[in-house]
Each structure stands twice: as structure tokens, then as C-alpha cells.
Amino acid sequence: MPLAIHWNTIGKMTDTEQFMADIDAGLSSAPKTLPSRYFYDEIGDRLFIEIMALPEYYLTDAEMEIFSEQTQELINGLGLIPGKDFDLIELGPGDGTKTKELLKALCSGGYTFTYRPVDISGNVLDILEQNLLPEIPNLKIQKHRGDYFRELHALSAVDKPKVVLFLGSNIGNMRDDMAGRFISDLVEELDKGDQIVLGVDLKKPGEIVLPAYNDSNGTTARFNLNLLTRINRELGGDFDLTLFSHSPEYDDEKGEARSYLTSLADQKVFIDKLNRHYTFAKGERILMEVSRKYTDKILTKLIEGTELRISGKLMDSRNYFCDYILVCD
Fold it and tell me: Quick one: which of 141, 122, 143 has its CA closest to 45?
């Protein structure tokens, strides 16, 4: 699912200005697209939490199995030593359900660390803290609201080993060239010996993958359409949600799930704060999200040319999902 990243404009625009610029650029392009990073407002946060609990959304259960049943194997794979202080940094933590298992084991095992969740949504971080502290009262947590690289850059000045968690197959929301750039930029903020736990959805048949993006309850459809509602509310748009349908598809050969909103009629949409009309033909689609599925070969190519190497991997019992341990040499 989506993540909060943009590289070139950090510090140059306000959040609203960036939102306006990105929406205009996406709706002016051919084909049209909307950045999935903007799925997350208060409603979007809640809907995504609902999505993660859906029976069709196998990704959560698969990675949860790894974190709950192979917790010690993960700790051992990272080579963590009790009493040796480190930062555990999680990019896009969600509600912390999976990470909670690792945090419990670390706290009960006498490990010394600060948990640093990073997210663009302050609402997500507040929910996360409320979920974790009642069960792990001795957890040392420091929330970081903002873009991943801006926050990582600030944390890079801290002279402590770092373990970066990037779970939930968030890397899959990027095209391969963007994912490679993301990994390269991430490595720039790491020191020798720092590690990444990278969760990826593995390539598998469409009959397993597609229902995860087209659930029977229509929750994923509401999640995608909510971005149009957000544009209406925050930018003065006049999108009629009844004139768009959620249209996901899966490319078995490439291993890519793609979510679209399809225009059901010829129409024009006006966005007041952009002072522009945007024309949609009947059947025209807006690309909302790409979800890449991985193999060892794809990941190896992704980290090629960086200082990263694969030092371990943990998979669920159905081989649906993998958490790779990458170390910076």
C-alpha cells in the first residue's frame, strides 16, 4: 500500500502547495494518475486499517505470521545484542500490529533501543502510540512526522547503529526505477553495518493477488475513491464519486497489481484552488497505485550497485511473503 515519499521538493513547498502541485501534475498527464501517498487522511487511515484486516488482504496475515512465529529468528538474523543501544526506525508503521511482536520480544529480552516510527500522517502515529504503550509500557518511542528522507537525514547524525523497517511491501508501490532510487537514497542515510528489514509481497498467481485489491466488501474501492473526496474537501474540487468506479487489474507476467478509477461518463471536473477544469472521457482511467510483486532475482537487481547485500530472509508458511534482511557493507 501507499507510502509518503517525494524527493526533489522537500523543504521547498508547504504540504498544501505540494498537494496542489502533485494533483495538477497527475491530472494533467497522459495517462492520468494520482499519487497514492495522498490516500492517507483521517478517513484513509481508518479505511486502510480495515483493509489490512480483510480476509482477501493476505499480505498482513502472511507478514504477521513471520513477525509472530519467527520473532527470535529475526532478532538473531539482525545480530542484535542485549545492552547494545540502537535505533529501530520504521518507515510507514501503520497501526503497529506486526511490529508489536518484535517490540515485545526486544523489550522483554533486555535489548536497549529507541523505536522511531516515521510517517507523514500524525494521526497514524498517534494511533500507533495508543496501540503500543498499553501493552509495552517500557517501550521508548519517539514519533517522527514527515517525509521519510527528511526524517532519516536528521536521524543519520545520531551515532548509533540503525535497523530500518520497511514492511508491508510498501516498496512494491513504486516502479522499479523509483524503487531503485529509493533504495539508493536510503543507503545514503545509513552507515556501515546498519540494516534494513524489507518486507515484500512475492510473485504469485492472479487468483490469489487480485482479490486483495478488489475485496467483496468494497473497502478498497472506498479507500481509492476517498482521494477524490479529499480533493473536493481540501482543494474545492467537484468530483462526483458516482461517476467513477474502482477498476483493479493484475499482470501475471510482470507481477504487478494496478488500481484504477475509471470514468463512467464524459465529464469535466473543476478544482477551485487550482482554477482548472480537467476533462475525462468515458472509460478513461486514473492510475491510483501499482503494487509490485517480487522474486529473489528482482530484489537482487534492485540493490545492485548499492552497498547492500542480502544477509537473511524469512518467509511465511505459504511462501506468499518475504522479509529480507539487508546489511550495509
Answer: 122
pLDDT of residue 149: 83
Residue closest to 235 by CA, chosen among 274, 203, 202, 276 = 274
| Element containing residue 131 per DSSP (H, E) | helix 122-132
Identify which of 38, 153, 46, 173 has the alpha carbon closest to the alpha carbon of residue 89.
Answer: 153
Nearest to 57 by CA among 290, 216, 289, 262: 216
Residue 289, helix vs strand vs coil: strand
pLDDT at 12: 65
Which residues, 6+ apart, have CB-to-CB distance to 328 below 8 Å?
187, 190, 191, 192, 193, 194, 195, 196, 307, 308
Report the largest interatomic distance among the alpha carbons of the chain, rounded to a whole angstrom.
Answer: 64
Beta strands in 18-138 (DSSP E): 32-33, 86-91, 113-119
Domains in the chain with CATH codes: 1-329 (3.40.50.150)
* Nearest residue to 60 via CA among 179, 170, 219, 197: 170
The residues of the chain scoring below 70 in pLDDT are 1-12
Rounded CA separation 292/202 (Å): 9
How far is Cα 72 from Cα 317, in angstroms, rounded to an integer? 16
- Angle between helix 122-132 and helix 97-108 axes, rounded to 10 deg: 50
Amino acid at 156: S
DSSP state of 214: S
Of 237, 232, 257, 238, which Cα lies nearest the Cα of 247? 257
Contact call for residues 236 and 275 (beta carbons, < 8 A): no
Q: What is the pLDDT of residues 246-296, one digit of tens each?
A: 999 999 888 999 999 999 999 999 999 999 999 999 999 999 999 999 999
For the stretch 216-233, what's the b/e string if a residue is b when 16 or more beta carbons lie within 10 angstroms of its beta carbon?
eeebbbbbbbbbbbbbbe
The pLDDT score that the predictor gives to residue 160 is: 92
